[in-house]
Amino acid sequence: MTQSHTELPRFPFEAGTALEPPSEWAEFREKCPVAHVRLASGDEAALITRYADVKSVLSDPRWTRPTPADNAARVADTESGGVFNSEMATVLPQHGEAHLTWRRTIGKWFTAKRMNALRPGMAAMAEQLIDDLVAKGAPGDLKAGVAFPLPVWVICDMLGVPDSDRDRFAHWSDVMLSMTRYTQAEFDAAQQDFGRYMGGLIAAKRAEPGEDILSALLPEGWSDPMLIATGIGLLIAGHETTANMIAKMVAMLLADRSRWERLLADPALVRTAVEESLRLDANAGVGMMRYFTDDFEVAGTVLPGGTTAMCSMAAANRDEGAFENASEMDLGRSPNPHLSFGAGAHACLGQPLARTELQVVLEVLLRKLPTLELAVPADELRRVEGLAVGGLRELPVRW
């Protein structure tokens, strides 16, 4: 599969149905593991699709996130480009020792031990949301009713945000993670409103610290812009991605209902089922762009300095060279070293939180709604367009 640069494939690729991957992933993995693609902005980037190559680029400290001075490829130009073009991306340290220090400081809040302590509270939130969904009657939208609010409730709780402000947080997160659905003006307004709100919240924590992340960060001596960016970053990273993954996971498990039945018969499979759902997520899954100033060889292809690379973790997760029967959903698959949370210095900081939320919501759904099923055929589920993290527009279910 040789590439002519006149007609580069447009990225992201179109997939047939919401739960199926684009056919290009397998084709590129096999014939063109380092492909040139054209982004929505018209800029060109290198797309890397094989497991070993994706892992090596993500783990190599020489590949960094692009800085404004790098002349890197842009995801989008006419749209806001969402969080990729936000102030947050410039305030938080992206490289070197400062980045590692920031991660270590925040990472203390996302240990497995802390997550286990949060489990009962998460389960209570999930039960309340499911009860509300059931009270409205079937069919219901599991995404709007459970998947979307739950991660907001959890992160608001961790940041010490009053329950009454949860809905505002959800709206800001939605605007800031959209790539195409909002204008630059709407994006700027959301970012300003959010920044002002976080600034007020931080001032309140200084006056009266609580048992929350923001209060705990005050002694670190960080500037207000960095505290604000950290709060916004945690909400955005901790909300939309997990909300979409909850809906996609449940959809995958109900698309072939024998999977749901298997979990009902053996709830001990919840942990491995969550990991397998993460591995088989059929969304673009490229995370942040990577940029390299010198020449770099990947899969026998030399990428010249100044190349912007996109690592398709989702395509890599279906690489037969890394996973036996990679296109099959095996609820008991173990080990499962998928790359859904990335790898290396920029691997997802909140992965213990995401895993815990996914496990808890699945456990509670299996317990409270064993008869849960899709209210539409799986191939009629509709994908959200123009969102950095991809997901379903709604998840119609009945019970």
UniProtKB/TrEMBL annotation:
Oxidoreductase is among the record's keywords:
yes
Q: Which Pfam families match?
A: p450
Ranges annotated as spanning the membrane: none
- What are the entry keywords? Heme, Iron, Metal-binding, Monooxygenase, Oxidoreductase
- Look up the domain of life of the source: Bacteria
By sequence similarity, the record places it as follows: Belongs to the cytochrome P450 family.
Query: Which GO terms of the molecular function aspect are on file?
Result: heme binding; iron ion binding; monooxygenase activity; oxidoreductase activity, acting on paired donors, with incorporation or reduction of molecular oxygen
**Iron as a keyword?**
yes
PANTHER family the record matches: CYTOCHROME P450 BJ-1 (PTHR46696:SF5), P450, PUTATIVE (EUROFUNG)-RELATED (PTHR46696)
- Gene3D superfamilies this protein is in? Cytochrome P450 (1.10.630.10)
Question: What is this protein called in UniProt?
Answer: Cytochrome P450 hydroxylase
This molecule's function is given as:
Involved in the coupling of aromatic side chains of the heptapeptide of vancomycin.
